[in-house]
Amino acid sequence: MLRFCCALLFLFTCNTVISQEMPGMTQSNYQAYNSALLNPSAPLHSKAYLDVNLLGLDLFVDNTTVAIPGDGFAWYDLLKSGYTMPKYGPYDRPVVVNTEAALHRAYVNQRLMLPGFVYVDRNISYGLFLSHRTIVAARRVPYEMVNFGYYDLSYTPQQNILYRDYDIRISGLSWSEIGFNFAKTIKYRKFNITNAGLTVKRIYGAAAAFVSVDDIKYIVYNDSTIDVQNIKGKLAYSAPLNYRNNEYDSDAGPYTGSGFSVDLGVTFIKTKKEVNRIYDGPACAWQFIPYDYRLGISLLDLGYVHFDENAYVHTYTGKGHYWEEFNKFKPENIYDALRELSSRLYGDPTKSLTDSSFTAFLPSALSVQFDYHYKSNYYFNTLLVQDLPIFGGYRVPRESYLSFTPRYETRAFEANLPIVLYDWRTPRIGLSLRLYSFTIGTDKLGTMLGLGDVYGMDIYFSVRMAWLKGYCRAKKEKHPCGEFQF
């Protein structure tokens, strides 16, 4: 169990280079499609009446465990032909371990946004969203497990010490989703507009793994002997794999679970001019209504995935084992590893297996968006995303996020400079740029510029086709009050 926890942690933090909430794409008035990712009512008050997403990608990794020293390294070095990363320390590794924190955490967030669209027709909007997402999180991982996982049991400074750890959580969930979005104006009077929306999503679970160590007590005596005096926890996993050879299992199919989720949102808009009724002309002739400020509140990813194909749950209830020659424990597959562990703890290779299905909950969150129109093309935005662990059991968390973003936007160009407080701990500065319908950005500008040690990476981009309000190809109908009646 100890080795399995460490293996998962380093697999997810070191070998995966996979932004968090993409403020440069989700808060713009020109990006109806991406704005629905944080508030399903947001597309209704955008400058586009039709926004077609062609491709988008959101990649984020952050951890407190290992880092690439910034001195002498920059990410663009990886683009050089024949480049090899420098090695550090007596073990000649490409990363160094953070020895200052007693407990470590890591977070990986990936979202691939496939073709979809949003269409705005005056007081209603609807859209289709297709994406594949992966989240991996590790929390409260003790420093000695990190060191044992990195240096192996031969790390002598930690030998012959009794360790007692608890509440360790490592979780991973990968899923595809098909979402249908609908929003409607529910109040439209004088200087106030209120829009409400929801996105209902069908979820297809591709893989999941959850490790919870409620309590563990152990001593590492040398590089081959470990005395696990007590261990209590659970392991649940499901994937389209043959666990006897770790190869893809075509009989299981690409998905081993399914479920549903919903996003709910409302947007309050204080307009600059008084509005009395909704224009009943074509959608393309609808005019964007300038505002003083815009306030959005939303609940995100309220849902679940039930895994009942190729799914297993192992439970460990306070047993221990004095394990000699642990260094020779090198199982070739998941099946053999867990049978051996059960045999060591219970004398029975199947005793730890307690269930063949489980339900995983999505990273639910509360989001608040406030956008202030300063003047002309200048805006100031504040974004809050707070994790909501409202469901128990197996769940992937969502890292909390607070940002303040000055923004300059025109039809052809947009620039965002987010100042971010990530997970209420780490301040950082980002940058995103949009040229017509292409956007690229990062929330870790320092990392991209090669400033400081590298504890993660962040990049997002979007390629879209957008048709803006007020631009109709057909001849526009003329009437006394113009294209929009105040």
Blueprint of the fold:
Elements: H1 2-14, H2 23-26, H3 32-35, E1 48-63, E2 66-67, E3 96-97, E4 103-121, E5 124-142, H4 143-151, E6 162-222, E7 225-238, E8 241-242, E9 247-248, E10 257-275, E11 291-307, E12 311-323, H5 334-346, E13 353-355, E14 358-361, E15 365-375, E16 378-387, E17 394-395, E18 401-409, E19 413-416, E20 419-422, E21 426-429, E22 431-435, E23 438-442, H6 445-448, E24 456-468
Using brief descriptors, characterize the structure shown.
about 475 residues, mainly beta, 13-stranded antiparallel barrel, two-stranded antiparallel sheet, about 55% strand, elongated, disordered N terminus
Description:
There is one protein chain. This protein has six helices and 24 strands. The N and C termini lie far apart (67 Å). It has one domain. Helix 1 crosses helix 4. The longest helix has 13 residues. It has 486 residues and is mainly beta. The N terminus and C terminus are likely disordered. It has a 13-stranded antiparallel barrel with strand order 1-4-5-6-10-11-15-16-18-19-22-23-24. It is 10% helix and 53% strand.
